[in-house]
């Protein structure tokens, strides 16, 4: 942690980028301190972390923000204008600009807001102290709640004001509480916040599954979310998010393995470790959470693979198996198998195996349908049959590189198919 005791941020690349300067100068023209950076970019800068998104808060209402951007030849889009948000694009970098606001009413999913020019009022409607930090273009910090910087220093994630009220404004904040603890917390969760999450957990039923999955995926991507998942389970939140979860034993073992072996966290594999070994359960939940097609494919192909790691692979078996199931699936199943074995695992063998996966380059099958047709095989299913059989021979022979040898074998298989097709044709003629 790199939090400075001074109320000023050190120079940040995103703060001094040409695009940021253009946007901030347009907002502050004729009225200094009309705009400040806010939220994640300020928080991460204090922690010495890169900023993924640049958010700006301003006293100007959306129409005035749009006017100022256009007057300075800055692209602007009304991405959430009903809540006071527009997105400016300067030097190919988006900047989300939101008018200072206060909540008039909320239903746990969306809020009706009123604009304000009071920075303190805007801060009070945000979720956590650590997200209610502002700074100007010179890096001068503002901490309206008085607890944002100290909470960051203590690695404490605490709601602003009454925790139940903050959650009732947007029940997704329940998962944000756990996600922020996983990424920025010290391990021990704020008791008041945790208790409020338990009391309000039923509110998650009103949140779309897409938003829930997006938040949970970010949580699972944290370096070590074991304590957080345990807390979610103890107060019943995990059961709301993932009713099919069967316990945390394999999950905890998998995360421990990733940390010990310096393996990159894999949120999809971590999710899979929470499910029972039942393809139907996994498929049903993938559909329920409305995952993207690529996410569905990743989870279902991994869950559906039956590669056995009961015994050690020979070099030939390794090449044949990884070619058949794919690099991603093989590594995922290997990690899970390694985690299952835990202390009993022969770690050197598994390290060598994972290292071999990372270095693996899939050989290219040198035969195409054009080659098969060129030797006289009729187009259509017969060509597919020859391709399938010759590829299986190639795999079984450990991927030989001798093109002449492959061509001879292809010809042998092709001749068999040609003779069969000819015989079938003659029978049909009778």
From TrEMBL:
Parts forming coiled coils: none
A Pfam family hit: PolyA_pol_RNAbd
Top-level lineage group: Bacteria
Domain Poly A polymerase head span(s) in chain numbering: 35-157
Boundaries of every tRNA nucleotidyltransferase/poly(A) polymerase RNA and SrmB- binding domain copy: 198-245
Cofactors required: Mg(2+)
The entry's keywords: Magnesium, Metal-binding, Nucleotide-binding, Nucleotidyltransferase, RNA-binding, Transferase, tRNA processing
Annotated family: Belongs to the tRNA nucleotidyltransferase/poly(A) polymerase family.
Annotated protein name in UniProt: CCA tRNA nucleotidyltransferase
Organism: Hirschia litorea
Organism placement in taxonomy: Bacteria, Pseudomonadati, Pseudomonadota, Alphaproteobacteria, Hyphomonadales
């Amino acid at each position: 942690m790199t939090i400075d005791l001074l109320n000023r941020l050190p120079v940040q690349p995103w703060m001094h980028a040409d695009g940021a300067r253009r946007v901030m100068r347009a907002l502050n023209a004729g009225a200094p301190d009309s705009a400040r950076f806010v939220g994640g970019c300020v928080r991460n800068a204090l922690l010495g972390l890169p900023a993924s998104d640049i958010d700006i808060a301003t006293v100007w209402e959306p129409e005035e923000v749009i006017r100022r951007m256009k007057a300075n030849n800055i692209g602007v889009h009304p991405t959430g204008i009903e809540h006071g948000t527009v997105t400016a694009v300067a030097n190919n970098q988006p900047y989300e600009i939101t008018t200072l606001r206060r909540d008039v009413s909320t239903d746990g999913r969306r809020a009706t807001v009123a604009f304000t020019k009071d920075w303190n009022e805007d801060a009070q409607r945000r979720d956590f102290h650590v997200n209610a930090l502002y700074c100007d273009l010179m890096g001068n910090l503002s901490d309206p709640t008085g607890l944002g910087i100290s909470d960051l220093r203590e690695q404490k994630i605490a709601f602003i004001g009454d925790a139940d009220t903050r959650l009732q404004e947007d029940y997704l904040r329940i998962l944000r509480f756990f996600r922020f603890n996983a990424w920025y917390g010290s391990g021990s969760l704020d008791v008041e916040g945790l208790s409020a999450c338990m009391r309000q957990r039923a509110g998650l039923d009103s949140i779309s599954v897409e938003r829930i999955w997006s938040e949970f995926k970010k949580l699972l991507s944290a370096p070590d979310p074991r304590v957080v998942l345990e807390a979610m389970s103890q107060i019943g939140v995990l059961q709301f998010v993932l009713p099919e979860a069967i316990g945390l034993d394999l999950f905890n073992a998998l995360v421990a393995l990733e940390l010990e072996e310096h393996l990159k966290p894999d949120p999809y594999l971590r999710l899979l470790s929470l499910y029972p070994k039942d393809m139907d359960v996994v498929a049903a939940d993938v559909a329920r959470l409305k995952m993207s097609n690529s996410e569905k494919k990743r989870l279902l192909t991994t869950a559906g693979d039956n590669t056995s790691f009961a015994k050690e692979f020979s070099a030939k078996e390794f090449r044949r198996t990884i070619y058949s199931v794919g690099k991603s699936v093989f590594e995922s199943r290997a990690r899970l198998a390694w985690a299952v074995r835990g202390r009993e695992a022969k770690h050197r063998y598994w390290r060598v195996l994972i290292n071999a996966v990372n270095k693996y380059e899939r050989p290219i099958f040198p035969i195409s349908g054009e080659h098969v047709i060129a030797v006289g095989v009729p187009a259509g299913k017969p060509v597919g049959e020859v391709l399938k059989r010759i590829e299986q021979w190639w795999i079984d022979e450990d991927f030989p590189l001798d093109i002449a040898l492959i061509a001879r074998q292809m010809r042998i298989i092709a001749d068999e198919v040609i003779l069969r097709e000819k015989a079938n044709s003659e029978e049909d003629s009778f």
